[in-house]
Amino acid sequence: MPEVKEQTATIDAAACAPEWKEILRQMIFIRRFEEATEREFRKGKIGGYLHVYSGQEAVASGVLTAIRKGDIVFSGYRDHAHALALGAEPRRVMAELFGKGTGVSKGKGGSMHLFDVEHGFYGGYGIVGGHLTLATGAAYALRYQQTDRIAVCYFGDGAMNIGSFHEALNMAGLWGKQGLCPMLLIIENNGYAMGTSVDRHSALTDLAARVRAYNIPAEKIDGQDVFAIRGAADRIVRQIRETGTPYCIEAITYRFSGHGAADILQPYRSKDEVEQHKHRDPILIMRNRLAEMCAITDDDVKKMDEEANAEVAKAVQFAEESEQPEASELFTDVVSNG
Amino acid sequence: MAEKSYRDAIRDAMMEEMDRDPNVLIMGEDIGVYEGTFRITAGMLKKYGPKRVIDTPIAEAGMAGTAVGMAMLGLRPIVEMMTMNFAIVAADQILNHAAKVRYFSGGQVDVPMVIRGPQGAGVQLSAQHSQTFEAFYGHFPGLAVVAPATPADAKGMLKTAIRGKDPVIFLESAALYGMKGEVPDDPDFTVPFGKSRVAREGSDVTVVSYGRMLQLSLIVADKLSKDEGIEAEVIDLRSMRPLDLDPVYESVAKTHRAIVVQEQWKPFGAAAEISASIMENAFDDLDAPVERVTGEDVPMPYARNLELLATPNESHVAEAIKKVMYRA
Amino acid sequence: MSEIIMPKMGDAMTEGKVVRWYKKSGEAVKKGEPVAEIETDKVNLDLEAESDGTLGELAAQEGQVVPVGGLLARILGAGEKDEPQRRATDQKDSVKKTTGEYAEAIETKGPRRDRSQPIEAPPPPATRGSRQRSSPLARKMARELGVPLESLQGSGPQGRIVAKDVQGFRPVEDRRPRLSPPSSLESKSIPLSAMRRTIAKRLSESTGPIPHFYLTVDLDVTSLLSMRQQLMDIEETKISVNDFIVRACALALRHHPNVNASWGDDAIAQHGDVHVGIAVSTPEGLITPVVRNADQKSVREIGDEVRALADKAKNRKLMPNDYQGSTFTISNLGAWGIEEFTAIINPPNSAILAVGAAEARAVVVDRQVVIRDRMKITMSCDHRVIDGAAGAEFLRTLRQYIEQPLRLVV
């Protein structure tokens, strides 16, 4: 996994910068990782819920390669990609999914509660829309402490209907007026809130418009085009950092797997629809463009694939071989010791 | 030492802590320009400015949730809930987030925040504005829950709450805001959580209570001593979570009988927890079952007479004491 | 080589069923091709081959239920051989492993202290027939004091025995826990032993014909006076305290034949009947009419007889039969306000009881000062017949009858 770099100059979507290759590598890695988690779930190695990011990689990589070390990120429960993109060790993420003591959250969080504060990942939350207030408060704290760090908050289209979404965005917009809310909101609009499509769950389907109602600017961007995402992110992140006001990207994307591992039949959408969207696989789109721009070959990509698979296999092995948490860990971290 | 009101003790605690640590801030509805509906925050906006004394929209979930985020990043936010009844809408943020984030992150974050506000009934505010919450919050691991009954405890425990690393539910009582008491001047005077105190010594019966009901219990204890020679030992729990019942067990070893006095509904209330614990730990010392004095199991009515019927009063407490003493 | 396993399709799924195999062992399969149909709790679905190759041995047959993660078959690559043995399940994932560690966690956790008393052998059940309720404290006290719960009356709700019921029963001084009904007496002649003769000779030399010694006890007569009052209210007759004392002495003598006795040159005669003499004052002097077989008479009968005899005595109508033949004598100067005194034995009795006035006094009960009705009695004993311990034992029995006057009823 590539290190999260210091933010350099933004990269040109038309030029063949080395960063693009790294982004492709990252996205491929995320895809292979997610595929592996699905396999391990079927084998019974992963318990509870499993929500994979396959198909949405550009939304994570496009934004999270545009931020800086020190910036912080919040996400919902579809959080593996964000943790990995920020630099969390894949083997410790896999171990967390396997419920082992070596996991990033000591095995006490699981898939929905990945945390890696050292790399800026502040969770991993299981309540739809519950974390937006946390991100808003965190953003306030960053300005209060007179830093130029920003907060990034990912959430799905489904999270926009719950009460705390409304309260968070209003407060974000309000504090933003004073430059005290340097937060980038990312709507992962994959068309469905679990099994309910946007037009069946949102009175106003123009989600960006709903955000603007809180005096927060919002742009719709093609979430499958990492170049578009990264380009917008570069610009927007700088603006947020400079002004301390919040901004929103509505990323139009798609998830190839079910909502979670138990969502097998997916009665809310046809197999055809899913196949259609696979034509707009973000990895494919990026590969093709890089083939044009940077003369990347199929072999190059195959190599990336193999390396990704090898690293994922090592992560799985580490997770398998790790021990479950010590029984005494049951009682630690409930409250602080001091 | 100085004589202070409970209200002033709370304000002093917050201001002293804000002077001491620049990361402490307070937010709530109408606490700044309006200076607070109970005047607790009077003068604070002027002194500390709008970045540290934040007037929020009416958005309790927003207030509680943003406080969690602030706390995770190293600030020490105090959230004033206009009344604790209004915090019900923030339940998800408090119970699913504040109480649990440390645990499910494997200990990677502290959540040093305080949610404080008045609870309880007494002035015809009807069902939605008259509730108490020690049992509700006390049930959840990950929170600290306290209910000071005196100005000194209010000040000392609020300081402990602000200086700590964990989310604290700080339950005040509007009925106590005007109460006066001796409060130490020392800005480092703190009162630890998880330590009950014997508010009144006696040898005939153990009376366990907290908050507003503690003051009621003390009044009854005095009357029974004067009129009937009954000497009640009254114990102020101060802290629901963590809960310190050792002084209660020691008292019951001496008196052999106990009552618990709480304001609200009997089913699943705080008295049930205390009573069960006394049964578990002082079984052989008991000459009578533990008696619970509670409010009636109804939503709080508006009419004054019904409100009084619904809340424990002196005669309820006295009756309970005599019942466990097998006295008429 | 790749494996076809029973997949977990839902969070709670623990096993699934193989419905049918589309391919046979040894057949070629292509990646993505359906190989078997399985049934889970939610859905039937096809399992697809993950790689090209040959289908190996079928590890599960059609209709077989397989746990999640269980092997169904392998897909072998070129030149690969099937491994007959099943894949071992990963021990580290076993949930069973953790349950054994739970007890460990409780140990290491520390703060939760078990404050309850160790569970000892349970005390004998308080229930005998009907449910007897008692508070834990009352039971503990009863156990410690050796008071049987069945003998207690509970003053708490639904007859619950509470601490004060046990406390009320606590002995003020040492007493025998049970007093069995007195047996009947028979006339006996106890030959004098050498020791007895010697005691008699030497003591008579120092004191005179009958060597007296005296034992005094201060009795609690609160219950007795209360009972007397109740009876007088009910019967509307006069009953005197002494009437009770007469009966009490008579019953006590049945327990102590050695006091209901007389000195003889060769033997001590223990009498088979109890005849109690009552000292009566007349203008001429003292006389002691006798209530024969006082132990068989009720208090009222005794009272009637005593008054009749006293009348006769005052009117000089007493016959020898009336004043001879007592085995024990009582002298009561309580009516004159005498607190205590010593009386002189009335031969051939071996003892006489001097009864003082009953009055309210401050005494110590349970280390507290309380007001009780008290009465002093002094017993004079013939040391030739009765030793100190024998006299004391008689008084101990007498005390039980007087302090717990209900015993006089049965």
Task: Write a brief caption for the model.
Chain A is of the alpha/beta class. Chain A has a single domain (18-327), classed as Rossmann fold, CATH 3.40.50.
Broad shape of chain C: rod-shaped
Radius of gyration of chain C: 46 Å
**Domain unit count of chain C:** 3
Mean pLDDT of chain B: 96
Number of helices of chain C: 9
Indicate the topology.
The complex is a heterotrimer of chains A (338), B (328) and C (410).
Chain A (H helix, E strand, L loop, with lengths): L17 H25 L14 H8 L7 E4 L4 H6 L4 H8 L23 E4 L7 H13 L6 E6 L6 H15 L5 E7 L2 E2 L2 E2 H4 L5 H6 L5 E5 L3 H18 L3 E6 L18 H8 L3 H13 L3 H24 L17
Parallel strand pairs in A: 1-2, 1-3, 3-4, 4-8, 7-8
Antiparallel strand pairs in A: 5-6
Helix pairs in contact in A: 1-2, 1-11, 1-12, 2-9, 4-12, 5-6
Chain B lengths: L1 E4 H15 L3 E5 L15 H5 L4 E3 L4 H13 L3 E5 L10 H8 L2 H4 L9 E6 L14 H5 L5 E3 L4 H13 L4 E6 L6 E4 L13 E4 L4 E5 L1 H18 L3 E5 L2 E3 L4 H10 L2 E8 L4 H13 L8 E5 L8 H7 L3 H12 L3
Chain C lengths: L1 E4 L9 E7 L6 E2 L4 E6 L4 E5 L4 E6 L6 E3 L3 E6 L18 H15 L26 H10 L17 H6 L19 E4 L2 H14 L4 E9 L1 H14 L5 H15 L5 E2 L4 E4 L5 E3 L1 E3 L2 E3 L2 E2 L7 H16 L5 H4 L4 E5 L18 E15 L2 E15 L5 H16 L7
Helix pairs in contact in C: 6-7, 6-9
Tell me what you see in this structure.
The complex is a heterotrimer of chains A (338), B (328) and C (410). Chain A has helices at residues 18-42, 57-64, 80-85, 90-97, 132-144, 163-177, 198-201, 207-212, 226-243, 271-278, 282-294, 298-321, and strands spanning 72-75, 121-124, 151-156, 183-189, 192-193, 196-197, 218-222, 247-252. By secondary structure, chain A is α/β, with parallel strands linked by helices. Chain A has one domain: Thiamin diphosphate (ThDP)-binding fold, Pyr/PP domains (Rossmann fold, 3-Layer(aba) Sandwich). Chain A has a 6-stranded parallel beta sheet with strand order 2-1-3-4-8-7, sandwiched between helices. In chain A, strands 5-6 form a two-stranded antiparallel ribbon. In chain A, strand 5 and strand 6 (196-197) form a beta hairpin. The radius of gyration of chain A is 19 Å and the shape is globular. With 328 residues, chain B is α/β, with parallel strands linked by helices. Chain B has 2 domains: 2-183, Rossmann fold, CATH 3.40.50.970; 197-324, Rossmann fold (3-Layer(aba) Sandwich), CATH 3.40.50.920. Chain B is 38% helix and 20% strand. With 410 residues, chain C is α+β, with helices and mostly antiparallel strands. In chain C, the strands form 5 sheets. A 6-stranded mixed beta sheet of chain C has the order 10-19-18-17-13-16. In chain C, strands 1-8-6-3 form a 4-stranded antiparallel beta sheet, with no helix packed on it. A 4-stranded antiparallel beta sheet of chain C has the order 5-4-2-7, with no helix packed on it. In chain C, a hairpin with a 2-residue loop joins strand 18 and strand 19. The relative contact order of chain C is 0.10. At the A-B interface, strand 2, helix 5 and helix 6 of A face helix 3, helix 4 and helix 5 of B.
